User: Fold this.
Amino acid sequence: MSAAAPAAAERPILRERGQREVFCGLTGIVWLHRKMPDAFFLVVGSRTCAHLLQSAAGVMIFAEPRFATAIIEERDLAGMADLDEELDRTVSRLLERRPEIATLFLVGSCPSEVIKLDLARAAVRLGSTRPQVRFLAYSGSGIETTFTEGEDACLAAMVPVLPQAAPDAASLVIVGALPDIVEDQFARLFAEIGIDNVAFLPGRSVRDLPPVGPGTRYLLAQPFLGTTAQALEERGAVRIPAPFPFGAEGTAAWAGAAAAAFGIEELALRRAIAPARERAKRALERYRPALAGKTVFFMPDSQLEVPLARFLASELGMVPIEIGTPFLHRAHLAEELALLPAAVTVSEGQDVERQLDRVRAARPDLTVCGLGLANPLEAEGLATKWSIELVFSPIHGFEQAGDLAELFARPLRRRDVLRV
Assistant:
């Protein structure tokens, strides 16, 4: 930690409450349903919910995705229909058509929450009559959450059904949805370090869930999994404090924290990660000339903002002006906050008009924001980066460090080309 940087507990935080610009939590289904091919996500919501998912996923006419929407009609909203009976009929039709479904997530939405439809109770009732299918329920409502919290709610719903590990069984669980290629890389990395009993939540099958118990240690791969972390700790698991695995140094510190927790010697750790770490550093050097010294402003959107700002500042020499995040979990981000430049403003929550005023006053080289703000800012001559692309893209780990840097360099190149 730099001597000039305040400790995480001491760093002042600008807290804002006002109008927000966020995506709906249902968006998480787009990457979760790809990660778990034997699961199905049934949203209980409106036609707007269905259109959102189809647009976000880019569903083609010939595709048969593993998600759908049980449409709440006007008669449902008016209380003229028995919603439990309606849901039972929809689920029966779905399982007749898709008998291979092993786990069915009932996903709440703004409309289902407004009418107080108890999907957790419905999941228990449906499971009692269809024992071949595991029913789980969670909320993807966008009323009070940001879009990545849909993943947090989904994984938290899975924790109660995880198998109980033996009291003396030591294991490591990596928590957070990762692309299969990144999961494979991390599995090889930890095997080379000397940690053999490694599992992932979620894994590639909801039938194969990692056991959890007092001997379980877990590493967060995503900073937005606060509810899932709490649920795991209630099962006896212990979090390994660490920065997040973005960039060469972030990934090295993340893996090093796990190695220390499992008693791996420092020399063995360095030997195991050295080749990949050096490849990552070389990949980043290609982008440093384009990014070093450039200013960046993060609008609150995905909760990835703090670790990504640390990566840009410490590994590529960018200058963060403000790092906005929808919610700041100080304990989970303590290591990241300590590595940020002392002068940067960290803000939690959003008053979008005030924040836009600060963006316009600062005129940063790059603004990271949601889709709804990007086009207006581009029209004002500001280069922008869609924050949602950082969630959909493989960006974790040593091998993706260069790809992550490329995502930030690309809009600056585009701006330079358009100026010519």
Notes: The mean pLDDT is 90. Residues 171-280 form a domain with the Rossmann fold fold (CATH 3.40.50.1980).
